[in-house]
Amino acid sequence: MEYTRRELGILALAVPCAAALGRSRTLFAESVQAGKPNSRFGGVQVGVITYSYRSMPDQSAEAILKYTVDSGISAIELMGGPVTQYAQARTGFTPSTGRGGGRAGGGGGGRGGGRGEGGAPSVAAAEPAASLGSWNGQPCAPGRRGGGGGGNAPAPAAGAATLTVAPTAPPAVGAGRGGQSPEQLAAADEQRKWRQSLSMDVFKDLRKMYNDAGVTIYAVKNLQMNASDEDLEFQFTVARTLGATHVTAELPAGSSAAATLKRVGDWALKHQMYAAYHTHTQGSMTAFDEAFAASKGNKANVDFGHFVAGGNQGGTPLDFLNKFHDRIASFHLKDRTLPEHCELNLPWGQGETPIKDLLRLVSKNRWLIPATIEQEYSIPQGSDAVQEVRKCVEYCRAALA
Fold first, then answer.
1. Which helix (H) or strand (E) holds 332?
2. Is 269 exposed, middle or buried (0-12, 13-18, 19+ CB in 10 A)?
3. Out of 49, 112, 292, 381, which could bridge 250 as a Cys pair, Cβ 3.0 to 4.6 Å?
4. So where are the chain's domains?
5. pTM of this structure
6. 78-82, 141-145, 168-172: which range is least confident on average?
7. Residues 6+ apart with CB under 8 A from 368
8. What would the CATH number be for the domain defined by 5-95+102-156+197-399?
C-alpha cells in the first residue's frame, strides 16, 4: 500500500518510540504520585529554568518534569533541548551526525553563546591581586572576578538538541550555504523536513503532561534571533502551543541589533506573545533601551544576580524593577556579589542580590511577573541540584510569608 506524505506523518506520530513512552509514563506517574506542587507565594509565581538541573543525569523532558515537581515548583522556563528530544522520541526521528541544526549547548538548548552563566572574563582578572577587592575579609582570587560562579558552575549537559537550525547565510566561496559542508546542508534539510512534518499535537501532549503534574510552562528558551522566517514562525508556534507567554534569548548587540529586535519583537506580537531577552553582567538601567524602543513585543528577562555582579550600573535591581516592571516578562534570581566583592555566586542569603526585597516588591504591587530560580552556585557534597533548588524555593517562601 502506498501512503501520502501526510499519512506517513500521521503514522509517525501514531507509532512513537515504545521505550521513550514507557519512560514517559513511569516518570509522569512518579510526578503525579508525589502530589502537585505549588510555588506561588504571596501572589508571586516562583519558577525555575531547566538550566538549574544541568548537573542531573537525565535531561529528558520527563526527567526535568520530575526534578521540577520534586523541587516543589509549579512553573518553569523550559529550554529547547528537552522539547526537541521529546519530539524526536515521539516521532522516532534520529538526526544525522554532524547535522547543521541543533547545536549542543547553543540556541534554545543551552545558555547564551555556549558560555557559562557568568559570561566572558572581565579585564579585572588580569589586575594585581591587591586591586581585586575582597568578600568577608577574604581577598578575591586572581582571575576569579567576572567568571560567573568562579569556575564552580558545571557546563551544560552535552547533546542538548534544539528545535532550530543554524541561521542561513550567503554562500561562501568554495563552500555550501554559510560555509557549510554538503553533509551539513543535507542534515539541515533533513531537520527542516522533519519540522515541517511535525504535528503540534506532539507539543500539546508535552504541555498536558506538565500541566497534569501541576507545572505550567510560562516561557520557552528556544529563540534564535537570526532564524529564517520559517524557523521563527515554528519557534513561536511551538512555544505558544506549550502555553508560554514569552520566548527567551540572549540580548543581542551590534550594528544589526536594532533591526533584529524589531523583526523578532513584531513577530512575537503577531503570536500575541513576547520576546524576552536575558542579560549577563552587561545588565544595567539602560541595557534594554534599544529592545524596548524597537518593538512593543520586546520585554526583559533580566538576571538580577548578574545585574549585581556587573556593578549595579546606573541603579540597583530594585530601581530597575520599579522603573520597568511593565516591560519585564520574567526575571532570574541568583545570589551574587558586587565586582569589588569578587563577583561570587553563592548560596542564597550569602550574597548581595536583594532577593527578598525583589520578591516583596512584586508581591506588594501585585505585578504578574514570574521569578525564575537559576541554581548556579557550587552544589555541596552529598547534595544535588534538586535539593539545592528546593532550598531556593523555601527561601522564597520564607521571604513572602
1. strand 331-333
2. middle
3. 112
4. 5-95+102-156+197-399
5. 0.80
6. 168-172
7. 45
8. 3.20.20.150
